[in-house]
């Protein structure tokens, strides 16, 4: 009897032990399947860079520590994604797609992830500007290229290349300007030199007058520059001051034996409307004769954006500058030289700078 009880007791113990094993194993299996496996599957997906799988598995994570681990790892992953985009190992679309997937839940409202995406946006704008700059550079529009190169962000991997390109654009633009200057210099240029003080003081006119003399520089395509007087400017100035120059002309003619009636007949026959206009014509002819006798035909050359004019050892240097405000070129002689042109106008108290515009 005792032996039978022992056998039954042993069987009960075995059954209980088996049941305990089954229960514990079941609980362990449930724990493994519910907690451990999802975490390791997610971790494997993280290591493989499989964002979609990580996102899909994230909801299966039950432990806060596991979810925090995934958040930290995916934040590192996204930070590396932005870095890869900076060095153009992946595209902006790749970064944007990863952020869109991660920000739904894993990195939702994550300030650092948001800041990283803003950085990616800024890099994307910078890289677009760099690309536009290269396109304008290829079209030889160096000024516009510079505008876009200057918009390249210093955090962009293209920043150093953009800075070098700006220097290159500046040098190439100088060449463009020099070539355009050499091409566009030919033709007539005019500066209006104020002779009012000279006429009032030196000649002895006791009226307030305004007299602007037009000085013409005519550049041909063979390196010759002819300096002359602008006829219209002298006649216009005399007519504008008719009370002075009309009277002066009658007096000069009377001193030479011609009365007013003779002068009026001569004007009518010549087609002049006033004595002042005829006076201007005489002044123009006298001044032109003086210029012709002085031989104001000089040699010139364009060096870079400078014009160099010289003759018989005398030299004048002027800046040939593009004025974008008026959309034309101007010639500016800023310093007094030792050439005979400057010397000729010293007596008129006409000091540089002289600004010449297209006539």
What does this structure look like?
The protein has 359 residues and is of the alpha+beta class. The protein folds into 2 domains: 2-123, no CATH class; 185-358, no CATH class. Helices cover 61% and strands 16% of the residues. It has helices at 2-48, 51-58, 64-86, 92-102, 111-138, 142-149, 159-184, 196-201, 231-240, 242-255, 260-270, 275-294, 340-346; strands at 187-194, 212-219, 224-229, 297-303, 306-311, 314-323, 328-333, 354-358. The chain has an 8-stranded antiparallel beta barrel with strand order 1-2-3-4-5-6-7-8. A hairpin with a 2-residue loop joins strand 5 (306-311) and strand 6 (314-323). Helix 1 (2-48) packs across helix 2 (51-58), helix 5 (111-138) packs antiparallel against helix 6 (142-149) and helix 6 runs antiparallel to helix 7 (159-184). The longest helix is centred in the first third of the chain and has 47 residues, at 2-48. The protein starts with a helix and ends with a strand. Residues 18-35, 322-328 and 334-343 have low confidence and may be disordered.
Q: What's the average pLDDT?
A: 75
Overall body shape: rod-shaped
Described by strand count, sense and barrel closure, the largest sheet is: 8 strands, antiparallel, barrel
Query: In which range does the helix fraction lie?
Result: 55-70%
Beta fraction: 15-25%
Q: How far is the first residue's CA from the last residue's CA? A: 139 Å
The count of β-strands is 8
Structural class, please? alpha+beta
Poorly predicted runs of 5 or more residues: 18-35, 322-328, 334-343
């Amino acid at each position: 009897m005792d032996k039978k009880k022992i056998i039954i007791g042993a069987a009960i113990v075995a059954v209980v032990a088996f049941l305990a094993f089954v229960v514990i194993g079941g609980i362990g299996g449930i724990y493994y399947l519910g907690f451990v496996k999802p975490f390791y599957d997610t971790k494997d997906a993280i290591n493989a860079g499989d964002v979609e799988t990580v996102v899909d598995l994230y909801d299966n994570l039950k432990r806060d520590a596991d979810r925090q681990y995934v958040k930290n790892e995916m934040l590192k992953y996204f930070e590396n994604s932005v870095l890869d985009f900076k060095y153009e190992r992946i595209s902006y679309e790749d970064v944007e797609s990863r952020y869109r997937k991660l920000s739904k839940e894993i990195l939702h409202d994550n300030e650092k992830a948001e800041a990283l995406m803003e950085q990616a946006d800024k890099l994307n704008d910078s890289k677009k500007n760099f690309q536009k700059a290269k396109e304008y550079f290829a079209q030889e529009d160096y000024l516009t290229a510079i505008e876009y190169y200057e918009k390249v962000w210093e955090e962009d991997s293209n920043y150093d290349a953009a800075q070098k390109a700006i220097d290159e654009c500046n040098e190439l633009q100088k060449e463009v300007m020099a070539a355009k200057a050499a091409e566009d210099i030919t033709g007539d240029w005019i500066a209006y030199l104020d002779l009012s003080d000279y006429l009032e003081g030196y000649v002895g006119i006791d009226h307030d007058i305004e007299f602007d003399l037009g000085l013409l520089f005519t550049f041909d395509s063979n390196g010759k520059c002819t300096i002359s007087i602008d006829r219209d400017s002298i006649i216009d100035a005399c007519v504008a001051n008719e009370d002075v120059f009309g009277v002066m002309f009658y007096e000069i003619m009377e001193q030479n034996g011609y009365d007013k009636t003779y002068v009026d007949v001569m004007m009518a026959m010549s087609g002049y409307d006033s004595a002042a206009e005829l006076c201007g014509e005489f002044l123009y002819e006298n001044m032109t004769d003086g210029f012709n006798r002085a031989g104001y035909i000089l040699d010139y050359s364009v060096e870079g954006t400078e014009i160099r004019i010289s003759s018989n050892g005398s030299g004048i240097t002027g800046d040939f500058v593009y004025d974008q405000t008026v959309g034309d070129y101007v010639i500016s002689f800023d310093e007094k030289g030792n050439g005979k042109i400057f010397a000729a106008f010293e007596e008129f108290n006409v000091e540089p700078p002289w600004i010449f515009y297209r006539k």
